[in-house]
Structure formats: structure tokens, C-alpha cells
Amino acid sequence: MAATLNGVLENNLAESIIKSRLLMVGAGGIGCELLKNLVLSGFNNIEVIDLDTIDVSNLNRQFLFRKEHVGKSKAQVAKESALKFKADANIVAHHESIFSPEFGLDFFKQFTLVLNALDNRAARNHVNRMCLAADIPLVESGTAGYLGQVTVIKKKLTECYECQPKPTQKTFPGCTIRNTPSEPVHCVVWAKHLFNQLFGEDDPDQDVSPDTEDPELAAEAGQAALSNEAKRDTIGGIERKSTRSWAMETGYDAEKLFNKLFRDDIKYLLSMENLWKKRRAPQPLDFQELPGKGEAMCTGVMRDQRVWSVQECADIFAQSLAALKQDLYSKGDGGTLVWDKDDHNGMDFVCSVANIRAHIFGITLKSKFDIKSIAGNIIPAIATTNAIIAGLIVMETLKILSGNISKCKQVYLNRIPNDRKRLLLPCALDPPNPKCYVCSEKHECTVMLNTQKVTVRVLQDKILKGHLNMIAPDVEIDDGKGTIILSSEEGETEENYDKVLSVFAVGQSSRLKCDDFLQNYSLTINIVHVEKLEEEKEFEVVGDISQFHPTETTTESPVEGHTNGASKSKATEEEDDLLIVEDQVTPDLVSTGRKRPAEDQQDALLIKRKKQESNTGDNEDVIEIS
User: Fold this and answer.
1) Contact at 8 Å (CB) between 118 and 600?
2) Which residue, among 166, 160, 167, 165, has the nearest Cα to 438 in the 3D structure?
3) Given its phi and psi angles, is residue 272 left (phi above 0), alpha (psi -120 to 50 degrees) or beta?
4) For the whole model, what pTM was predicted?
5) Is the pLDDT of residue 113 over 90?
6) From start to end residue, where is composition biased (Polar residues) (predicted)?
7) Helix (H) or strand (E) run with residue 311 in it
8) 29 annotated ligand-binding residue
């Protein structure tokens, strides 16, 4: 192989390829193409990490997998298939999560560089931090339909993955989801919440039913609650029973669950008269009196491609409910299920439930294929896009190994050629953002919250883990005493979880020192106490204290696109340089000639527009369409 490489590549680069050790994270759409490219390019030492298993839906674009591999580890099967291209390659497969403690700093330091082929933001954030800590180059990539991108990340030389803010996943007000849905996506979100209420981890914020004992509602329903005697040892004298507790008491009886969710709860909503003065009122359904009962099913169209009748939805609801019940019971006491778009029963459940609710509220019903796209925030994957991006990853890898990292580019793949007939648009890599709380010299950010309402649990789950992407945070108050309010060691600070921050004297201008030993990452949080935030948010995070400019009339701050009056002009200027790829990309967006960022399926990427390089040195990265 060395002789073959020497005939094509410079001697030094050929030797670097043979001696290098690569870590590839992800063995899906991009990962399959990339692993094949790597072994055919002469790379001998490769480790692959992927926790996922192979699903039938993967087979149309992940060409290292075959039908007989369904249900097996992606990493292991990818390794076995790649060895058929180069039998003497040393490939190590890990069927594990990249977040596992075994993949710590020492593990990352043994590699020459890391190649990401991921499909979610949390994993990308984690690998980004590990590569920064280990000071090794990272080649990041993503695809979204016909769009794609590749970039290189190197500590102190380029922007890291978190230098620019990413758009948060779109959410909807709880009252819209529970009471007044008006779009298919509202019904799909409600169905996923119901899945978690019945089978997953309980989250009070995802309650799906109107509270039948809440006196703060109108007409007969609220009056019935008020007429009940207050109960002791409950919140506000009102006893609330979880959806799962009730379902388990019924033995997950399909008819009882159906009639509660789609008849009784809807009748309860109808008693809230003010909701329906300017809206179409929902129509309750009874399990035994459904439209379409007795009608023959359409058999000329594939099951997942056609829209099911209401009766068919009810039947599939009952079947999937029974199957999911067995899956849950097999987990033992305290077990939970995690919804997965590729799980047949889970997807059938969400599709049937979403369509039944849509029918009740007069919303257009969707096929299972469409609902799967909505529920998984899926942009259909294109095999050729993955192949192009995998090739670009190898090209950037070769530049790094040849000692020319300064010549690396951020490359965007567009859906159609621009005015210069280019599909691939190379751009210069941006330098690090000096205010990035991940890769700058000063790891610091500001969090605005009400210290008298936000608990240590919210700090841990929603701020540190959810927003700041930590894995195992420890938190110490910078008060000169070393007061620890949160420890990653199990059981050490659990008694603090439900205490508000003010109990620990955390208030305006307090500083919290946060460490994550798994990521070898530390961050200082400056606390800004506010009584109330816009849109009833629990908290807002900004890069540093200088970005917070409170005024007498507002508590807003320029956080991820939100600005106060003082900085409105600057924000307006920058808006033209921001692009978001979400669920669908239209041709007119791409044909403008602007660089189009993309992420793999579930993760939209927000980046600054790049100025296209025009020197002739870029032509090697450009496809000309004649």
C-alpha cells in the first residue's frame, strides 16, 4: 500500500496516512461512505464509535449494511464490511455512546485527528469539547437533503462548533398543545408527550390532559373542581393523578384510554367556553362509534404512504398500545421506554394518536411517512449528498496530514449551481470567537434568571446539561467558602435539587464555578437576577456580561437572536448574514448564490454567511457545471 500511495501522493503524506490514527464518530449515512473512503485511501488505523443499531430504513443509503444486518451494531457491521475493501486495515469498532466515561481525554489524545459523522447537536458539542481539550484537529460535517457542509476545527486557529449560537429547537406553548392545536405538528408533539406520559420518563411539563381537578378553568369543569373538598398533603389542596398511574390501573385498556383522551377530555375542553368563541370547537370521539367503521381499507397504496382512516387509526392505536405495554413490563419495575422514530410500535402509536387528535380538531390528517418526518424533524437523506461530503472530509483530512491545515476550507454543497455554475462553495475558515464560552481563553457566560424560583435541579438539567451541553457538572459558589451546591457524584447533593438558588445566597452578581470532569471543561457563570423574563422563560443565557444591557422598561437581552432596544440596529444589520436550515429547503433559497449551511437530519445549523473565495487556488474544490 505504501508503494501505491507513493505513486499518487507525496512521500511524506503517504507515510503520514499509514502512520496516522483516526477516530470516526458515527457510522450512519456519512459514516458508511467515509469509512469506505478512508480504507481505500490507505488509512490503516481507524476506530469507530456508534451506539445505534441498523434499521430497515437505513438500507437505501447506508451501503455497508444489508438486510441480514438489521438489528445489529452499525459500528461492528461497518467495520466488517470495510475490511472487505482492505483486509489488513486495523479497524476497532465500539458499540457504545460517545458520552461514555471510557472515551475520556486520554482516549482522544491517542488519535491524530477526529472525523465527525454525527446527526445530533449534543454529540457534536461533546466531541468538539473533547478535541479542544486534547488539542487535536476535528473535521466536522453534516448533510440535509441535497445540502451539505464540511469544516475543520482546531484549537486557537479556527472557530469551534460552539463559537456561533445555534437556533434552539422550536417549541410550542403548553396551552396550545393541550387545548387549542391548529396544525399537524401540534398534534404530533402532543402524541409524543402522551408516549412519554404512558411509557417514558415522566415530565410534568408534558402533561397531555386538561387537569380535571384544576379550579382555575371555566364553566362546568372548573366548578366541579371547586365543589370538591380540599385534600390534605397536596399542592393547593388539589390531588393530581399522573396519566401513567391511571393507565396502569386500567391495565392499559385501549378503549378506556381512548375514551378518556378523545372523548372525556375533549368534552372537558368544550366546557372552557371562552376558548371556542373564535375557534372551531373540537368534536369528541367514542371508541365504539367511529367514522369509517366497517369500511374496507385501501390496499393499493403502501401502508406508510397513505392516510389512515379514523377507524384504522383507532385499531392501530390499540395494537401499538398493547405492544408497548409488553415492552414496558419487560423492563421491570421503574423501567421506561424511549421513543424512537425507527421503532415500529412507537411510530405507529404516535401516528395513530396524532391523526385521531387532528380529526377531532378539524386538522388535516397525515400519512405515517409525513408524521415520521415531523416527529423526527427529518430532512430526507440523499445518498449522493453523503458520498460527496464524505469525499470532502477525506480531502480536508489529507490537507491536515500534509501539514497544510491553514489551507483547509469550510465547504458548502448547494442544491443547484449558483450564477458561476458552482455546486461546491469553499470559504476561508473563521478565527475563534473571542467571546465563545467554550474555546476562548475566558470560559465565562451570563445567565439571567429568578434566583428565588429556579431550583438546583433546573440549574443542572435545563441550564448546564440542556443549554450548556455539560455531561456531569459540579457547581461551586465563588463566595470564598467553596460552597458546593451540585456534585456529579451520585447521592452527594441530591438533597439540594428542589431548593431554589436563593437558599444558598445566590443572587445578583453571584458567580458559579462549573466543572465537567468528563469533558475536561470548566465554565464560570455570572448570575443576573431578574423577576420575570419574556415569554415566561425560566432563564436566558448570553456569552458574557457585556452582552446584557438592562433598561428600565425591559428585562430582554440579546440572546440567540433576541435583542433589546439598545442593540436593535446592530441585530438588524446581522440578520441578513444568518441562515437557518430547518425542515425544508426551497430551490429559491439555494439559488441566491449564498452559502447554505446544513446539518444531518435533526439538527439545523445557524452560521454566518461566508464571502466566497475567488482565487484560483479554490478551483480544485469546485465542481463546474457546463
Assistant:
1) yes
2) 160
3) beta
4) 0.65
5) yes
6) 548-557
7) helix 310-330
8) yes
